[in-house]
Recover the amino acids of this structure.
């Protein structure tokens, strides 16, 4: 990748920061106890719940928001568990996902209807260029939805529109052609939201041409489009509930939930996965509750317990003419190095799947099952196949 777009910088920074919101009052009698991994606690009361009790409290809600740290598989496991439990309560369920952008709804629909395979689906939704977080985190949720006939909604606005708005154009940069994929009403007046957004980015140099108002407007395009998408899904599916899966920042009250509530998505509740990093000094529970992250806090370890999609360990020249992907460097000790791949090889396949583009390689790795596989390369005009072992890279 030769450059990182502003949209990706936004995404990575928000994901890294987590959640902020205006402080809410916690009960004065709340002791300075410490939350433990696995605890589910109602906020701000501090009441401890088990998962069944959590689901009973979510049962009356028409919209449920389950926040995540994007690279924490514990949070994705929680999301899947909530989706399954809500479906068991009432199969009239819709899932809304931040990870997909509105123009690619048809690609989602075709996959969920069983009309396309996963490779086609990932290409049609441009998953690896528009979201980038490991597909393996979301795959079980999508497969459950497909297997049970659950509609999945692409909530997000197109990255191109957000970039146009953020780079100085403001809301005036949104064209008539863009309007189909962007919320009709964008609210720039929620001060707590603006304070949180600018608090996140205030310490990050944004360049001499940075326009704070335009940048903030792009964030609201993001929030309001997802909120409108969620509300529209409920309107189009009477009698259904929706569970929205998004980053913890976007599931705070002033982000998607409040904006969706104004559009009719109510009543609602927010469930947040909260990282507990045991290597750092613990935070007293009353401080966690006073942050007002959500209606229910689910405390998890901060790090993924499962290996993400493995990296083969090569640098590639995507623009070089010729078959496959030209290898310009091989990382010592990597999957590719251990398999026998060398500099100037051209990767042409992975376990029998043809590789032409970097997207092909990413998809093949994400969908690769089993411990063993092969990397096919063209070396000096000859086709070679090298076996690799993912035993060290997978659970």
């Amino acid at each position: 990748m030769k450059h990182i777009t502003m949209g990706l910088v936004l995404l990575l920074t928000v994901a890294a920061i987590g959640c902020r919101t205006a402080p809410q009052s916690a009960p004065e009698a709340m002791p300075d106890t410490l939350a433990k991994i696995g605890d589910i606690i109602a906020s701000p009361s501090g009441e401890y719940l088990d998962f069944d009790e959590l689901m009973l409290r979510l049962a009356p809600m028409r919209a449920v928001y389950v926040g995540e740290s994007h690279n924490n598989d514990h949070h994705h496991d929680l999301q899947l568990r909530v989706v399954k439990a809500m479906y068991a309560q009432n199969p009239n369920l819709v899932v809304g996902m931040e990870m997909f952008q509105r123009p690619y709804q048809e690609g989602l629909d075709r996959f969920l209807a069983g009309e396309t395979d996963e490779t086609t689906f990932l290409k049609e939704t441009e998953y690896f260029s528009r979201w980038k977080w490991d597909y393996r985190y979301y795959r079980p949720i999508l497969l459950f939805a497909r297997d049970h006939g659950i509609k999945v909604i692409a909530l997000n606005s197109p990255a191109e529109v957000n970039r146009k708005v953020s780079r100085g154009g403001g809301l005036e940069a949104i064209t008539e052609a863009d309007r189909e994929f962007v919320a009709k009403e964008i609210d720039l007046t929620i001060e707590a939201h603006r304070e949180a957004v600018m608090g996140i980015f205030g310490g990050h140099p944004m360049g001499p041409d940075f326009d704070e108002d335009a940048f903030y407007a792009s964030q609201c395009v993001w929030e309001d489009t997802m909120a409108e998408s969620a509300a529209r899904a409920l309107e189009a599916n009477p009698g259904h509930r929706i569970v929205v899966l998004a980053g913890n920042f976007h599931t705070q009250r002033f982000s998607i939930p409040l904006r969706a509530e104004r559009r009719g998505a109510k009543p609602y509740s927010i469930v947040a996965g909260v990282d507990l990093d045991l290597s750092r000094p613990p935070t007293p529970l009353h401080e966690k509750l006073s942050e007002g992250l959500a209606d229910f806090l689910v405390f998890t370890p901060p790090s993924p317990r499962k290996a993400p999609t493995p990296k083969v360990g090569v640098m590639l020249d995507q623009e070089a003419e010729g078959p496959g992907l030209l290898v310009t460097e091989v990382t010592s000790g990597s999957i590719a190095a251990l398999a026998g791949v060398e500099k100037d090889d051209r990767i042409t396949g992975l376990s029998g799947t043809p590789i032409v583009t970097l997207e092909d390689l990413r998809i093949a790795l994400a969908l690769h099952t089993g411990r063993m596989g092969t990397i096919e390369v063209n070396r000096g005009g000859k086709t070679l196949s090298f076996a690799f072992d993912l035993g060290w890279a997978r659970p």
